[in-house]
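pasting for ref
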Amino acid sequence: MEKRAHCLFTLDMKQETSCLAIRLYVSALTLMFLLVALKTRDIGVLDAIVVICPLLYLILDTREELQTLKLLEARVSSLSASNPGNSSQ
């Protein structure tokens, strides 16, 4: 199974910006659909699925990136703890 690249840890600023733009676009579309569905009719099963799926994806994607960030933070702290003479004061 191939691991996908995280938007948070890309080296290219253009890729990072496009990942943020995609997230904002999905969030805005979901919110607009929810508002239109509430104004025009009651929320049905299909409407609920259309709203829940993108939100669930965004939550899981953010959770995965936060776990990766915690691993990176632990790695940096272990490296800084093993090299106490390199700290600038």
